[in-house]
């Protein structure tokens, strides 16, 4: 199995893809997404959080635990957690 590399840039790309698919707020298409941005400050609601988890499961190829994502989690937190799964 190939080790996956998780970065802030990769997460930003996933967030933008989901925004393009109308799963997440449209402002993410042009926003500067930083490592310290949180799920909450990015404007995700519970439906958006579920969409993000679903996409991360697909990208990572694993099922994530129900408590994987918290609204206080930063992009850096998510990246670190995903990186630790390798």
Structure description:
The protein has 86 residues and is mostly helical. It has one domain: Orthogonal Bundle (Non-ribosomal Peptide Synthetase Peptidyl Carrier Protein, Chain A). Helices cover 43% and strands 0% of the residues. It is globular, with a radius of gyration of 12 Å. The N and C termini lie close together (9 Å). The model has no long low-confidence stretch (mean pLDDT 93).
Helices and strands in order:
Elements: H1 8-20, H2 46-60, H3 75-83
| Total count of strands | 0
Q: Approximately how much helix is present in the residues?
A: 40-55%
End-to-end distance: 9 Å
Q: Give start-end ranges of low-pLDDT stretches.
A: none
| Reported CATH architecture | Orthogonal Bundle
Global shape = globular
From the alpha carbons, calculate the radius of gyration and give it in angstroms. Answer: 12 Å
CATH uppermost class: Mainly Alpha
The averaged pLDDT comes out at 93
Please tally the helical runs, counting DSSP H or I stretches of 4 or more residues. 3
The proportion of strand residues reads under 5%
CATH fold call:
Non-ribosomal Peptide Synthetase Peptidyl Carrier Protein, Chain A
| Whole-number count of domains | 1
Largest sheet: none
Decide which structural class fits the backbone: mainly alpha
Q: Could you spell the SSE succession in H and E letters?
A: HHH
């Amino acid at each position: 199995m190939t080790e996956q590399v998780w970065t802030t840039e990769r997460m930003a790309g996933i967030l933008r893809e989901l925004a393009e698919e109308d799963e997440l707020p449209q402002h993410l298409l042009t926003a500067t997404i930083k490592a310290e941005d949180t799920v909450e400050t990015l404007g995700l609601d519970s439906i958006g959080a579920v969409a993000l988890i679903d996409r991360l499961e697909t990208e990572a190829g694993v099922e994530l635990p129900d408590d994987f994502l918290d609204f206080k989690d930063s992009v850096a937190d998510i990246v670190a957690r995903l990186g630790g799964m390798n």
